[in-house]
Amino acid sequence: MKTVKEISRLTGVSVRTLHYYDEIDLLKPTQITDAGYRLYDDTALERLHSILLFRELQFPLKEIKAILDSPDFDTKTALNEQIELLELQKKRLDKIISSAREILNKGVNNMSFSSFDKTELEEYCTEAKEKWGHTDAYKEYEQKHSDSADKTDEFMQIFAEIGKVKHLSPDCEEAQRLIKKLQNFITENYYTCTDEILKGLGEMYVSDERFKNNIDKAGGIGTAEFTAKAINCIK
Known about the structure:
The protein has 12 helices and 3 strands; from the N terminus they run βααββαααααααααα.
């Protein structure tokens, strides 16, 4: 059995992220001691490995949970599919690197955009999802996903909530709670939003006029700037 800190050191996944996976029932600890420490066994580690592979392939957390929770989920079959997808991803990246080197050596006159074509990868990914999609859990995910495909309104509502506390200190408990809510929303619906990525987004919220105007429209003038300051206060 390993503690949450040991799992974090072993995998590179932050303690904060592991706690969040526990909160959303994506990765529950095998045992919680009387002192409140989370402990994970080899089965939990195997599930975490699957989660990380799916995240590497840009699967949303809700989709990963639906797949892994299905009684029909087979680790070996999924691993073979994941390997194939990762190999296709590597092949595509190798082409992009070669294209970049060719431009560096020969100039833009030889520039080709064919390396950016994601058709093959997307087609295979769709086929893999269809195989996993025969499960009831995945179908339930798809239904929920189609019912709420556009998350923009929900996303902007978080900025509206942040706007209501912009008169407070950006490092106050309420502001930091909303920043964590923002980060978790991005992770759950779009991509893994690490602290580093979140800080980059914070800078963009004030430097990009389009983002700044939309955020300020949701939460009032000054919301984008306050959000950026609050993000810089995360620990």
